[in-house]
Amino acid sequence: MTDPIADYLTRLRNAVSAKHRIVDIPASNIKREMTKILFDKGYILNYKFEDDKVQGNIKIALKYHATSKVPAITKLTRASKPGLRKYSGSTEMPRVINGLGIAIVSTSKGVMTDKEARNENVGGEVLCYVY
What we know:
This protein is α+β, with helices and mostly antiparallel strands. Helix content is about 25%, strand content about 30%. The radius of gyration is 15 Å and the shape is globular. The chain has helices at about 5-15, 30-40, 115-120, and strands spanning about 20-25, 45-50, 55-60, 75-80, 85-90, 100-105, 110-115, 125-130. The chain is built from three helices and eight strands, in the order αβαββββββαβ. Strands 4, 5, 6, 7 and 8 form a five-stranded antiparallel β-sheet that branches. A three-stranded antiparallel β-sheet has the order 1-3-2, covered by helices on one side.
């Protein structure tokens, strides 16, 4: 697998479009941090890290509106790709839908959202956009 973050986003995107409740994703440290951010910002219902001796899995419970079954995640887009990395400074950090969505950024202080990166005054690699 050449791009594990794109695989993570694709598995989430496919599970949401198929209206699945739970999705299993192979774990890595950056995927764990991205999952924590999605949970903190209210895009997923819950998550669980399952640790076996090799790699581990992440079980993610997807969030839907109670009556209309509309998913909380409407769009997941990969920003920085292995062939073309996208970096951004703290002053030109992207705003997703005028602040309604989030951009997940990998910085020297860890993985965080675009708003947190602006507040911490750090730049980094823009991994994806979520809204």
